[in-house]
């Protein structure tokens, strides 16, 4: 998938709570570009351009559970 042209930025936030309506995806289910973004953002206070199918509120299981925030 390619970067979206929305100008929105993603940030990952470690979470212990998973909302009942959240889409939960395992790291291995992501495409290569999404894997790079998750790897770079996990545990870091930085943002990256919105990518692929990672949407605000989604949860990714990586080394921990991370909630996607998009702004």
Give the secondary structure arrangement, pairings included.
Blueprint: E1 9-14, E2 24-26, H1 32-41, E3 48-49, E4 59-61, E5 65-70
Task: Note down, in words, how this protein is organized.
Helices cover 14% and strands 28% of the residues. The protein contains 1 helix and 5 strands; from the N terminus they run ββαβββ. A 5-stranded mixed beta sheet has the order 2-4-5-1-3. The chain has one domain. The mean pLDDT is 87. The protein is globular, with a radius of gyration of 11 Å. The chain is of the alpha+beta class and 71 residues long. β4 and β5 form a beta hairpin.
Q: Which value, in Å, is the CA radius of gyration?
A: 11 Å
Which blocks of ≥5 consecutive residues have pLDDT under 50? none
Tell me roughly what share of residues is in helical segments: 10-25%
Number of strands: 5
What labels would you give this structure?
71 residues, single chain, five-stranded mixed sheet
């Amino acid at each position: 998938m390619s970067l979206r042209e929305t100008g929105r930025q993603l940030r990952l936030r470690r979470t212990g709570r998973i909302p009942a309506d959240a889409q939960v995806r395992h790291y291995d289910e992501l495409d290569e570009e999404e894997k790079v973004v998750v790897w770079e953002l996990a545990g870091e206070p930085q943002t990256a351009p919105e990518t692929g199918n990672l949407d605000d509120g989604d949860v990714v299981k990586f080394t921990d559970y991370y909630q996607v925030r998009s702004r």
